[in-house]
Design goal:
Length: 508
């Protein structure tokens, strides 16, 4: 019987969640859902020096916002917990010791100054920072260079030590990556990575292998930056006797700067003026706030859609996909090998399309919050829906709803009368006075009827209707933008329309 598909997202809680991280979650999620498998969230917090309070909760909130909920994780539990590596500390040592006993790892007692002096002694112009590997191993203070008795004494005396993997000097390690195909590494180039630290905490390399094994992970999607670590992991799976259970790996292509020149970083976003994190992130140490896609006015549907397309397509020209469609159509075969350039204009295009595509009710509450934060008082929900519906095609970001719709809620304070004045004259003034009176006298209030009456009156007064539309728009909206001017009039109502015309006439 085929094993149940189990995938994991394994972030370290060190700060804001980069869009590349969310794409990793997404591909994990799509694959798990498609295969009827489980999606696990595991918090990789063994590096206490990089731990940032609040980061785990933030990651979970980001996943919730994107609609990518894990089936198991620290916040929901599950059969394979605990899901925080710091809470699994006692599990790892036995595996590290086992590797020592079988000769694949060793105790290393080197103090920081000894490591420093090694780097000094062995550095050459070609190799300015030599690594701890087979070339220097026997020069260092470890259980390979010391006698058995010496090692035992040091251990009994409680001398601080780490456990390092003994990387073979001259082997080729290969595996088949789901995206890249056959990948090979020469072990002589890889250092003897620390597996267990002096404080008893595992490093990422040991913890990731042990936990992927114990949590029965079948497929591991992670960023391409982890590819150089893969030979260490492949060897650990082998040395621990678990080779046949090793997950299939997919190293996802990097998300690149817009010019394609290197990995997209938070700093690039700051420099070029676009978000890189999923949601607002406030660094608890510096209190620096980095704005996220959510707060800038992106819809989760658009965010997920644009991330899916950064490195994948379904082979057709289709670009808009719901999450359900992505689950159905996603295939690893179609994930690109090369990096994907991030294009913020394209990202906004996705959001614009999703704002148009989704019913207003879907994002009403968010927009309401945005409008209220700008001081707009909303009392009538039905009115709000009509207003949002009227302007949605003009909004790229949810935050655009403010500029695009505020005149529907409030009388505009600033009118762009400079646009009207050059062609303004007494006839037009008389026309608008008459038009306002006619409006006031009309029994019912429909935009289409008002438009017909307005145009008829213009013809009667011998003025081209085209010359009156722009002034009317400025009177109602304040500027030369917005939806159909009689649609606006219908929505804001008779009294308000007439009031705005009179107010403008006073100023003209
Ligand atoms: N903790 C690693 C990270 O933060 C996970 C890498 C992996 O998925 O194996 O990216």
């Amino acid at each position: 019987m085929a094993k149940k598909v189990r995938v994991r997202f394994a972030p370290s809680p060190t700060g804001g969640l980069h869009l590349g991280g969310v794409r990793t979650v997404l591909y994990n999620y799509l694959f798990a859902r498609q295969q009827g498998g489980d999606f696990v969230l595991r918090i990789e917090d063994t590096d206490q020096s990089r731990f940032v309070p609040g980061a785990e909760e933030y990651i979970i909130n980001c996943l919730t916002w994107c609609g990518l909920k894990p089936d198991e994780g620290p916040h929901v539990g599950g059969e394979y917990g605990p899901y925080r590596q710091s809470e699994r500390k006692s599990i790892y040592r036995q595996y590290a010791e086992h590797l020592v006993q079988t000769g694949h790892a060793y105790y290393a007692f080197d103090r920081p100054e000894e490591l420093e002096s090694m780097r000094e002694r062995f550095k050459t112009p070609e190799n300015p920072s030599p690594q701890y590997d087979h070339k220097v191993r026997l020069e260092m203070r470890n259980s390979c260079s010391l006698t058995f008795e010496e090692t035992e004494t040091l251990l009994e005396d409680g001398v601080p030590h780490v456990i390092r993997i003994r990387m073979p000097e001259n082997e080729t390690v290969s595996f088949t990556d789901m995206i890249r195909g056959e990948v090979s590494f020469h072990t002589g180039l890889v250092d003897d990575k620390v597996l267990l630290k002096a404080d008893g905490m595992p490093t990422y390399h040991l913890a990731v292998v042990v936990d992927d094994y114990l949590m029965k992970i079948t497929h591991a999607f992670r960023g391409e930056e982890w590819l150089p670590s893969a030979p260490v992991h492949v060897l650990l799976w082998k040395y621990l006797g678990w080779e046949s259970d090793m997950p299939q790996w997919a190293h996802l292509p990097l998300i690149l700067k817009p010019d394609g020149n290197g990995k997209l970083s938070k700093r690039d976003g700051d420099r070029l003026g676009f978000p890189v994190f999923a949601m607002n992130w406030k660094d608890p140490k510096t209190n620096d706030l980095t704005t996220g896609f959510r707060e800038l006015g992106f819809l989760p549907e658009a965010f997920v859609n644009l991330l899916a397309m950064l490195g994948w397509n379904d082979g057709t020209a289709q670009e808009l996909f719901t999450l359900e469609e992505l689950v159905e159509k996603f295939s690893i075969d179609r994930v690109h090998k090369g990096g994907a350039k991030f294009d913020y204009e394209k990202a906004k295009w996705f959001n614009h399309e999703w704002i148009k595509k989704l019913p207003v009710a879907h994002y009403r509450d968010q927009v309401k919050t945005i409008l209220e934060s700008k001081g707009i008082v909303i009392t009538d929900e039905a009115f709000l829906d009509k207003a949002l519906h009227m302007v949605k095609d003009r909004c790229t970001l949810l935050t655009d709803f403010y500029e695009q719709s505020k005149f529907l809620f409030e009388t505009p304070q600033q009118l762009d009368l400079e646009a009207v004045k050059p062609k303004w004259n007494a006839d037009k003034k008389a026309f608008f006075e008459a038009a306002a009176s006619a409006m006031m006298a009309s029994a019912d209030w429909k935009g289409a009827d008002q438009e017909a009456a307005f145009k008829a009156l213009a013809t009667e007064k011998n003025i081209k209707p085209g010359e009156l539309m722009m002034p009317l728009r400025i009177m109602l909206v304040g500027g030369k933008f917005g939806p159909g001017v009689f649609d606006i009039a219908e929505l804001i109502g008779k009294e308000e329309t007439v009031k705005r015309i009179h107010a403008a006439l006073q100023q003209l």
